[in-house]
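Help needed: design a sequence for this.
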């Protein structure tokens, strides 16, 4: 039985009981000499004894229907509000509240929602902090593992490749000059070992990238290029202007240089490498040029994580990156970054 039906029955019953009570008291206080008059006296062709209680019941039904409708409307609004609260939506308090009790209920619901919202914010904050902390721990573990692998590769495989390269060089230098098949094969083996050394150096550069660690971008780039020139049989030239840059820009440009040099060592078969870091017309320009075998930029870009990573780093610092490569003529990478922050500092 719903609220409307219950209110109608209650009010109709109450009206009938009230009529019977008042009529009984009246008849006791003022007894009738002829009870038949109640049936004989008619109102609108209806006996008095039937008409009056019927009117009382009808009035009770009307009052019950009106009050039941109001109560049902108020209770439904409360139910809708609780459903919104359950689903995490903002509850809307009705503008017209017929009963004072309903105002108290809505105030309580508002306080509950406020508490739930605060608890949700706290839970989300804790979850975010937990995720960030977990990500940091994962990054630390990955970095430690990469360093461990780099050390082991350097101490074992890299040393063995170096020894094999020296041995093959000694064998080829000791053999008389000839064009026989064996000599060609030994030369091929020496070239393969040399290429493997380049691959290993590029892999070590990926596994254990050198961080700036308090150095300026100029110092970090020079240190990296000097170390490469000592270990790699390649003509490396550079021109690096000392420029005051934000830490974020320095880090991204340094990582782009590392990725570019690594790709050159692994794939280009280049004999020379040129690196420039200059400022021209309020633009910071990083340029890396080699004379290697080149490649199809559009085809390689779609499947290369390294190239995509460099593009994303350039965009993150508000710059652009352009790469041009011609087969058997080399590759040219150029990153341009507007020096907006530095202009603002100079104006200050």
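Sure. Designed sequence:
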């Amino acid at each position: 039985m719903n609220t409307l039906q219950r209110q109608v029955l209650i009010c109709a019953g109450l009206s009938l009981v009230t009529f019977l009570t008042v009529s009984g008291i009246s008849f006791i206080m003022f007894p009738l000499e002829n009870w038949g008059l109640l049936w004989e006296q008619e109102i609108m062709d209806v006996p008095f004894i039937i008409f009056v209680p019927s009117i009382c019941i009808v009035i009770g039904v009307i009052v019950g229907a009106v009050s039941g409708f109001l109560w049902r409307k108020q209770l439904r609004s409360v139910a809708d509000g609780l459903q919104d609260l359950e689903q995490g939506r903002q509850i809307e308090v009705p503008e017209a509240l017929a009963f004072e009790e309903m105002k108290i209920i809505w105030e309580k619901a508002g306080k509950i929602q406020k508490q739930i919202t605060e608890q949700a914010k706290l839970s989300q904050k804790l979850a975010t902090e937990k995720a960030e902390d977990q990500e940091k721990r994962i990054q630390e573990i990955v970095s430690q593992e990469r360093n461990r692998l780099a050390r082991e590769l350097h101490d074992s495989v890299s040393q063995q490749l170096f020894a094999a390269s020296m041995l093959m060089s000694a064998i080829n230098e000791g053999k008389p000059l000839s064009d026989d098949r064996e000599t060609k094969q030994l030369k091929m083996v020496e070239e393969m070992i040399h290429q493997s050394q380049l691959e290993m150096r590029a892999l070590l550069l990926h596994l254990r990238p050198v961080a700036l660690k308090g150095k300026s971008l100029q110092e970090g780039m020079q240190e990296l290029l000097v170390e490469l020139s000592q270990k790699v049989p390649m003509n490396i030239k550079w021109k690096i202007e000392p420029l005051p840059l934000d830490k974020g820009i320095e880090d991204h440009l340094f990582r782009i240089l590392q990725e570019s040099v690594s790709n050159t060592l692994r794939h280009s078969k280049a004999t020379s490498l040129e690196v420039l870091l200059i400022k021209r017309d309020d633009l910071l320009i990083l340029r890396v040029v080699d004379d290697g075998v080149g490649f199809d930029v559009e085809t390689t870009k779609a499947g290369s994580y390294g190239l995509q990573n460099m593009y994303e780093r350039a965009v993150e610092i508000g710059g652009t990156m352009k790469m041009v490569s011609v087969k058997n003529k080399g590759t040219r990478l150029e990153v341009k970054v507007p020096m907006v922050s530095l202009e603002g500092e100079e104006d200050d």
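The longest helix spans residues 100-174.
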